[in-house]
Amino acid sequence: MYAGKLAILGYILFGIGILLIIIGISTGSSHVALFLIFPVIYGKGPFSLLGFLLIFLGLFLIFLSPLHSWNREFEGYHPSPSNYEDLSQSEIFPQTEVQSEKKYGGVILIGPIPIVIGSDKNMVIIALTLSLIFLSIFVLFLLYG
Fold it and tell me: Which range marks the domain in which residue 130 is found?
């Protein structure tokens, strides 16, 4: 399994865990509270337990995926110093394709104050939109849950 598949599996498990916790909140086995300014989700029952386990497993796989790709990058690379005299510079250091720039975005919520980070304007807008959606869902659960 390469890093892309590992990260995708992590995101899928994370999403399923979130859905299970939402189902637990809607059935009453999980609860949402506010401790000072920090949201807290707690509960008992199979939805809560399985949801939290899948979220932690998903996060673990997401954080593990770059390490897995670094390991695969160096597999099978064994240079032999005796052959360097016979090779030209382009054979020792072959030209590789320039890969596209990776984009990132994220939101850090400190209470009700969002701190939005991103590599470009579009990622900041996407991260801010998603954070507003999640924040509105959280407020709805607090008001009607």
Answer: 103-145
